[in-house]
Each structure stands twice: as C-alpha cells, then as structure tokens.
Amino acid sequence: MIKYLGSKRRILPTLVETIGRIAGVRSVFDVFSGTARVGQALKARGYGVVGNDANAYAHTLAHCYIAAERRQMATAATALIDELNALPGKPGFITHTYCERSRFFQPHNGERIDAIRERIEQLALPPDLRAVILTALLEAADRVDSTTGLQMAYLKQWAPRSFQPIQLRLPALLNSAPGRPCRALGLEAREAAARVEADCAYLDPPYNQHSYLGNYHIWETLVRWDQPEVYGVACKRIDCRSRKSAFNSKVQAWQAFCELVAELRTPNLVVSFSNEGFIARGTMESLLARYGHLQTLTIDYRRYIGAQIGIHDPAGRRVGQVSHLRNTEHIYVVSREPIEALTKPVAAHQAARVSIGSPHDARVS
Ligand SMILES: C[S@@+](CC[C@H](N)C(=O)[O-])C[C@H]1O[C@@H](n2cnc3c(N)ncnc32)[C@H](O)[C@@H]1O
Q1: Which pTM does this prediction carry?
Q2: DSSP-based three-state secondary structure for 35
Q3: Taking CB atoms and a 6 Å cutoff, what residues make up the pocket around ligand 1?
Q4: Which of 260, 286, 303, 365 is deepest in the core (most CB within 10 A)?
C-alpha cells in the first residue's frame, strides 16, 4: 500500500469491528476510498464493497483491490509483472520532470518507470488487468521515492530507499464472497451517493484544505499518463490549480457534507473525521443524529510522518516544531437500529486509544 495522508491503516481494526456490529450490514459503500485499504479489509471479510474516489490514482487502487478478482487476475498479472520488471530503462516524461527538473526519484528508477508505463500504454490492457498493473507500478514507485510521503516536496538528500532498484510486485488481490459483488467508481462523492445502494456507507472525506491531488500529483500523472504541463518546485500538474474538492474548502465543506449525507441511499452510516477538521464534533453530531441512532468513538493516535519530522526551511534546517504530534479521530456511527454492542469497548489495538461517548458528551462549537 502507498504512503497516504489520512490512510486508515491504524484504525482499521476498530473500523471493521464497528461496522461488524451494525445489524444487517452485508454491503458497504466507501465513498472516499483513498488507498482502498478499508474496502479491501471489508472485502476480505466477505462484505460486498463499492469503493469510490474522485482522483484517478485512487480510483485505480479501488479498482485493483475492490473490483478486480484474484481468481481471474493473478496468473496474467504475474506474467506481465515479470515482463515489465525485465524492461530496460528509457528516459521520458518522468525522468525529465521528476528526476532532473525535481528530485522525487533517482534517474535509474525514473527511466524504468518511463519504460514500464509506456509499455502498459502500448498493451491497451483490459480494465481490471490495467488497474492491477498500474497499482503494482504505483506501489513500486512509492517504495523508491524520495519524499516524506507527500508530493508537495521532495527530500533535500536522497532517501535511502531511493537507491533501491524499482521492482513491481503482485498486489494483494482478493476474491469477493459468493453473491457479494464488489466494484469501483471514480466519481465526485455526491454524484456517487446518488447512484449507489448499500447497507452502510463509510465516509472519510478530506478534513482540511490540503488537496489530495496536490499531495499525490505524480500518482495521478502515472495513471492518466497525460504528460501534463507542470508548475513550481514540486512540478505539480497544472490542473491542481483548477480541480478542487469542495471538501478541501472551509467555506464549502459543511454544505457539501450535508448534501452528501442527504443524498446517500444507505440506512447506516459510519463517518471518520479528525478533531482538527473543518467540522466540529458538536456540529457533526447535530446533523448525523437526524439520520438514526448515533454513537461517537474517539481514537487518539500519532500524526503523519511529516508532523513527526517537524518544520524546516528550504536549506533543510529545522526551524520549528508542529504544535502537536497526536491526532484525535472521531468515528461517528449512525444506525437504523440501536447498536447495543458499542456500549462495550471496541477491541483495543497497538496504535490507538479508543473511548466511547454519546452525542451529549460533545461540546457544540
Ligand atoms: C482521507 S482520504 C481517504 C483515505 C482512505 N479512507 C484510506 O484509508 O486510504 C480522502 C479521499 O477523498 C478523496 N476525495 C477528495 N474529494 C473528493 C470528492 N469530492 N469526491 C470523491 N472523493 C474525494 C481524495 O482523493 C482522498 O483519497
């Protein structure tokens, strides 16, 4: 899995267990699927899953991990990955833009990424196989990049992993359970909400102004392979300036969220939202309580790696520290039937402390 801001890796056990306690849930709609790891964990447990994300790279990850079936893909994908791993490098857009003009990859890897991506394009693969192979390429590139996990900047000194030769591996594909179909969409959240019926929706929207497209612009280019005009030190795609998500806007996020919840066609709902986000707990609870029985879990965990490393000037000198190194995530659970099980503690896991509250514990702010 790629390094990803806001990935739910560490709270996955709590999320899966929480969804498991909602009566009658057999299918889940992950509206902001990102790395697809939540949908992947649910598919592994036999749920029918629909994964959706507006960015092309995240849609590709959902296509690979949620929609594609291991039994149909594994043999062909393994053979193709072997072929791609044997290709010699050939400099192209990635080498020029992200190894010479900027320094996200070492040239020996940039040249191989160029050669592999060109070959994938020439092959005009069927959609499921294409998503699996592109995912293998994204994950391989992520293992040798020279960043802290965000593509708004690259490291001043090469990251140790960037010296390793890029190597594609078969993604951890899954088979869906009988009668529990899984699929992936690449739509704006509200548009997707109007189209999907499922027993439960999982909402993990961006919670602040930091755009996922801007933070993962190279993955977007690797998937689209449109060789866009770029700008700035990080060589971001020009459309980072125009393709904005309402959920990244302090002014628009609340209305977009209310519209999304109103549009959903799912009787149950689970929402992840940080205490640092645009929508305060009390405000969120006053909205969600209208849709069913509401409980809120609070999880305390370490912030992303960039926050751990601190604030640096362009010369790489540490000039400050971020205000705090821990993050609090609220998980709001809205169910058609009351969930008696949530009155017991959700299983504790290593990275996080979990507490449980009801709406009246929250301060409205
Ligand atoms: C917090 S991340 C989700 C992380 C995911 N749960 C995981 O564990 O990897 C939010 C995601 O929302 C997507 N996104 C942002 N705005 C969107 C919109 N308007 N419609 C659909 N997806 C959007 C971003 O591309 C990003 O992947």
Answers
A1: 0.90
A2: coil
A3: 4, 6-8, 32-35, 37-38, 53-55, 58, 188-189, 204-206, 212, 245-247
A4: 260
